[in-house]
Amino acid sequence: MESTEKKVPQHVSIIMDGNGRWARERGKERVYGHLNGVESVRAVTEESVAQGIKYLSLYAFSEENWNRPQEEVGYLMELMMKSIAGEFENLMKNGVRFVVLGNRARLSATLNGAIDTLMEQTKDNPNLTLIVFLSYSGKWDILQAAKKLALAAVNDPHVLDNLQIQDFDDYLVTAGVPDPDLIIRTSGEQRISNYLLWQGAYSEFYFTDVMWPDFRKEAYREALAEYARRDRRYGKVK
Ligand code: FPP
C-alpha cells in the first residue's frame, strides 16, 4: 500500500492462548489462567480505545472447545456470564459496543439473554466494537453462509448471477465488519486453529511467546508497533 496508509489497524483480532499453561506453570488449576485472562481482555480493550482502533475481536471459545472436560466448559461459560454482568459500566465509560458472534444456538438461554441485553445496552457506543467469538469456527461460519446462500438461491436463482466474492461476505456472521488487519496469537503457537478462515485472507499475523494472562498493554503496544512496520501489498507489487 502507499506510504499514506494509516498505520493504526482498523480491526485487530486475537487468538487468546496459553491460559492453561500459564496456570500450570504456577502450580494452579487451568481455570486460574482463564480468570487472569479476563484482566488481559480488559487491558487490550482499553488500549484499543486509546489507540483509536475501531474493532477488536477475540476468539474466546471455539466450536472445538466444547470437547474440553465438562467442568472447564462450565467454568468458562460461567466466567463469560460473570464478565458480561460485571462489564456494563466499564464498556459505557469507554464507549465500547459489545457484540457476540458464533453458533449461539449452542449457548444456554441464560447466557444468550445476558448477551442480548448487553448488546442492546451498548449498541450506540461509538469508540470501539468489541466482538467476542463464542462457539465459533471458521469452517462453521463458511458452511452456515453457504447454507443461507443456497436457500436464497432456491427462492431466487438470480441471486447467483454475477455473485462476487464480496457478496459472500454478507452471508458470514461478520457481515458489515471489516476484515481483520492484524491477527495476534499468544503463547508461542503458530496456527490459525479454524478461526477467521475467510476473513483473514490478507491479515497480518503476529505471534508472541507471551501467555494470554500476561498479555497486557505493553505487550499489545509491541504488537501494534510491529504491525506499523509491516508492508502490506495484497498480492500486488509496489
Ligand atoms: C486459551 O487458553 C483460552 C481460552 C480457550 C479461553 C479464553 C477465555 C477467556 C480469557 C475468558 C473470558 C473471555 C472474555 C471475552 C470475557 P487455553 O486454555 O487454550 O490454554 P492452553 O493452551 O495453555 O491450554
Summed up, what is this model?
The protein has helices spanning 19-25, 30-51, 70-86, 88-94, 109-122, 138-155, 165-169, 217-229, and strands spanning 11-15, 55-62, 96-101, 128-136, 182-185, 204-207.
Description:
The chain is built from 8 helices and 6 strands, in the order βααβααβαβααββα. Helix content is 43%, strand content 15%. Helix 5 (109-122) links the parallel strand 3 (96-101) and strand 4. Helix 1 (19-25) crosses helix 2 (30-51), helix 2 packs parallel to helix 3 (70-86) and helix 3 (70-86) packs parallel to helix 5 (109-122). It is of the alpha/beta class. The protein has a 6-stranded parallel beta sheet, with helices on both faces.
Structural class comes to alpha/beta
Stretches where pLDDT is under 50 for at least 5 consecutive residues are: none
Cα separation of the termini? 7 Å
Largest sheet entry: 6 strands, parallel
The share of residues in extended strands comes to 15-25%
Give a count of the beta strands, DSSP E runs of length 2 or more.
Answer: 6
The strand order across the widest sheet is: 3-4-2-1-5-6
The geometry reads as globular
Helix content: 40-55%
If you compute it from the alpha carbons, what radius of gyration comes out, rounded to the nearest whole angstrom? 18 Å
Q: Tell me the number of helical segments per DSSP (H or I, 4 or more residues long).
A: 8
What's the overall average pLDDT, rounded?
A: 96
List ligands, each type once. Answer: farnesyl diphosphate
H/E topology pattern: EHHEHHEHEHHEEH
